[in-house]
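To: structure subgroup
Subject: Chain for Friday's discussion

All,

I'm putting the inputs and outputs inline so they're searchable in the archive.
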Amino acid sequence: MSAVELYFTGPTTATTIALAHGAGAGMDSPFMQAFAEGLAAAGLRVARFEFPHMADRRTGKRRPPDREPVLRQTWLQVIEQLGPQRPFIGGKSLGGRTASLVADGAGVAGLVCLGYPFHPAGQPQKLRVEHLRTLRTPALILQGERDALGNRTEVAAYELSKAIELRWLPDGDHSFKPRQASGRTERQNWQEAIEAVARFVKQVAERRVLASGSAAG
């Protein structure tokens, strides 16, 4: 597979987190832009990229999302391009879900899902959680409380791996946007999510350092 074009935001020497877009918008959507800039401001190096179907849209070729094997292979190529440092990986919806499918096998440092699509909209019986029951990679799933692809009530009934930390964004939808009546704003939920990701990456990185020190001793 040819090289995937990567776009970096943040300090070049910082811990790297690669983020993939969702099915409907590319890496420069307001959501992806806000998270890249926010995480960079928190001291992380963010790598963004686009799956082939989204890259093609920029040339006028509109087509549906790539099939899962292509999505997986793209992620594996990105991880390889990032070099020997074990990156954190994740993304919005489709991007985060695909990252979760390759995380254990690729040996990444951690996983971050920004709105996980636990099931298709309106089809709660079609769950996408089988691999999440046995996931070994430290993971953070950030989810809007009223996400149509997995709300707080639904997800409470799922059996998920103990490696997964689940954090809820107040009254948020699939993009974390709350209703006006909630008294919160989309930007507030985005900022809360950005801070949670930054803390998660720092904590996992610190645990790795402590573990390596113990092994060396």
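Points worth raising on Friday:
The helical segments are 30-41, 52-57, 68-81, 94-106, 152-155, 186-216.
The chain has a mean pLDDT of 94.

D.
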